[in-house]
Amino acid sequence: KAGVTQTPRYLIKTRGQQVTLSCSPISGHRSVSWYQQTPGQGLQFLFEYFSETQRNKGNFPGRFSGRQFSNSRSEMNVSTLELGDSALYLCASSLPPASGGTYEQYFGPGTRLTVT
Amino acid sequence: GENVEQHPSTLSVQEGDSAVIKCTYSDSASNYFPWYKQELGKRPQLIIDIRSNVGEKKDQRIAVTLNKTAKHFSLHITETQPEDSAVYFCAASGTYKYIFGTGTRLKVLA
Description:
The complex is a heterodimer. By secondary structure, chain A is mostly beta strands.
């Protein structure tokens, strides 16, 4: 079974621009979560989607948004990029019980975003 | 807010020795506690996990213990090998989200 894939793998953007990152989960997985990883802050939770609905979100400004499609693929968007948005953006997929029980997450390789 | 504290931030051990990494969580609703290993330039890989109804779990050289009353959980690696060198993250999962610790950089010295 293919793993979680993310595109693109690397991006260089300029301050003020916007960016869209894509995540394709493991086949059959319906939950996708997004994380920002930086050397100083570790892995910070952005949001989680299940069946096209955002079920939870972390403490990030509204410039960070996401969505999930009917095939479970997910995108996240960052508008008005700032230098501090430079990070590795990871998505993870899982096959959770619909009622929200415990579940294992599997990570994609990440998208390295550099904002200049 | 919810957070997970992880200690130590760096850990150096001699090959063959044991390594212990400790985490403390704040959200009482957390019921699932995975550990991830991340090698340089690679994605985090799930290495072991434990659910709230279990106190200890072991898989070959690695084990995890959970003390729900104290909100502590720990990763134990025995007979460490150079390939164990990586950054290890603990996490606590509650309602549709994971909260990660800040990571422990483990160096196994040959």
